[in-house]
Amino acid sequence: MNQGFSQFIVFVVSSAFAQEVLKLRLESDKSIPIVGENLILSCLTHDIFKDGVIYWHIPNVVEHFKCYSVNGGVCERNTSSYSFTANSSGAYAYIAGLDRARDRGTWKCMQIDAKYNNANATMGIVIYTSPIAVNLVQPIPIDGDLGMESITLMCQTLHCAFPAPNIIWYYMTDGAIAPFIGFSDKKVTRECPRQEAVYTSTLHLPRGTNFSGNIPLTAKFLCGVTHPSLGEETKYSNVSNDVIFAVHVSNVNILDSENGTNVFYEGFPQTLKCVSSRSRPVPIIRWFLRTNNAFNSMTCITNNITERNTSDINGLHVTESEITLIPKRDQIYKIFCVGNIYGQQAVESKLVEIDVLYQADQPYVSELGRKFPWLENQTGILSCNTSNNGNPPSQVIWFSHRDMNGTHLIITKLTSNDNGKLAFCQLVNKYTVDKNTTVKSPPVTLVIECMVLIITDSPVIEMNITSPLTLNETQSISVLCTATGNPSPDPPTWTRQSSSTLRFENVNRNDSGTYTCSVRAKSETNGDLTNQKEIHIHVQYAPDINLTITGSDHMNMTSNLTCEANGFPTNYKFHPWKHMFGNVTIRSNLQSNTEGLINSTKNILTLKRLSLQDMGTYTCSADNGIRGANGDVIQTSAAVLNVKGKPEIVNRKHDTFAGAIGSSVNIYIAFYSDPVITDFKFQRDGSNIENTSRTNMYLSTNVVELLFHNTNVKLAVLMANLLIQNLTADDFDGYNLVLENALGKTDFKLQLYPSGT
């Protein structure tokens, strides 16, 4: 397909005459001078040259060429590029191999006769350069797919050209070519001498370029070049590989995949299918929900979507997208889908409005007009009511001993046989029929007052349990209240609870009190007949024990521990006190001064002349025969007694120490202090001992065993230490330890002896 290509360019000729006597004209043997071709210029006169001289003025050449206008005129000289001849008709210039730099411009011939008359003619020569051919310099290396990528093709002239050529793009299918319009541009890519240039046309096909017109799905591309002024045939480039076009989605449609309608049932999943037209590459489908009538209130649906793609034999694709909805009542469903491929504006389907069917809310039956009780021989009317009648609106079906349909149940000529009969209504619509559901009211009992019967003064109340009722805490009980009479009474109700049964699960002390069962019977002739019956409930519970410490907690003072019980019944039995220190029981049978008192709510333990051995945890206990929430009959409470005082020496018999001259001795004294120790010091001869290189005083901790009321216990104590190094004979002497806290000072004397004495 790589053929030659020419470009056509126009040149301009002009002539000028100095006077009428001599007339010249300048002509060319070619209408379109082209670079490299030969050209003949003729300087002609209307009259035969008789005498005179012809002068040639050549562009870009300073000198003139002269020819004599005699018969068989002779020209002055020739060159390799130019040769000149003359005859009786005129003078001729022969140009060999046109060159744009050398020969373009204005050519002029001038005649001067013997009388010095002159005439001249000029011609402007424009020399054209043909691009020869074009080449597809950037062919597609492999088959291109506009559905997946953008494609750029480049076509370039093979040679410099002047003026600019026309470059046209073509597509080829089955060996035939046709022009392809759009997406291309042309520019100079390389400048050449003499205003010539190499031209390039770029064809850009963006990804998603739609296939239009009669072009088949797959085509090859090539370019052609032509000169605007020459009648040359178009010269074509080489051919690209196959280009596969994108095919835009033209339409999308929503289909109901189940029943072919837009009727959905509340609570039942429903599937809609959106199908795209054939396109390539695989189209994308999205779903949108318009939740009200506003046009711009659209929500993109992203859940419950499944997609399936199919393709036909021509490589075009169809996408089927399914969305599953669980419809709800009172919600507007306006759904549409959109489809497109990359780079294409989305195409919308028609808007689908969905009608959601649902059953009515549960109805209830009420008297219309006269309330129960109805009177014998009169007419009673029942109405079927509901807060929502469903979609589509429901019809009413009545069920009673008198079979009647309609919104109202009308019972005429009431008799005693109607008394106690049941009636209820059922609501039916397309939803309940298609989905086999039932929507019916609770039954009501007809109450007919017979005129011949004797009306009792008031309804009779009975209970399954007699009053008073005594319960232990955490027990459960149900008390049923029933009522009879004529007319039939309404269901009884309890104070504190609204049903006819009084129920307690895990009864507690706060449930004690009086409960009243009330009942009312409506009489058409005697007005409301009422009655009440009470039951007294006593809840027994184990005592709560509260232990408090009063008096003083200081050494040698008196402290009172008060154990107080609060329960029901109040027949408390107090048990001996228990004294512990840590995990060690010191005393387990402490008797109080109030123990054994009848109907007493308190048990008081008095501790006189407090000492260190009275410290510890005291526990009191009592019961009233009722098990507590913990399952125990005996309930307890404990409190800690800390005895405070000035520092107390733990072992006053530990007051002598021994050491050898030249050795070291550590004098240590154990003591207990509550509150905390604030100062300690060792003294000798009434003077405080200071810390020196030989003496060092410090505190440390220790655990010692003591007797608390003849029981061994372990007590955490402090140790006052005096370390004396390099003993001398002068160190053997009496010493005094002074301990101090917020409650006072304690002095303790000790003696240091030489070893062996």
Automatic annotation (TrEMBL):
GO biological process: cell-cell adhesion
Keyword Nucleotide-binding: no
Signal peptide: 1-18
SMART domains, per database record: IG, IGc2
Membrane-protein topology: Single-pass type I membrane protein
Protein name: Ig-like domain-containing protein
Entry's localization field: Membrane
Domain (Ig-like) ranges: 131-240, 363-445, 459-536, 543-639
GO MF terms held by the record: cell adhesion molecule binding
Domain of life the protein comes from: Eukaryota
InterPro entries: CD80_C2-set, Cell_adhesion_signaling, Ig-like_dom, Ig-like_dom_sf, Ig-like_fold, Ig_sub, Ig_sub2
Gene Ontology CC: one annotated term: cell-cell junction
Keywords, sorted A to Z: Disulfide bond, Glycoprotein, Immunoglobulin domain, Membrane, Signal
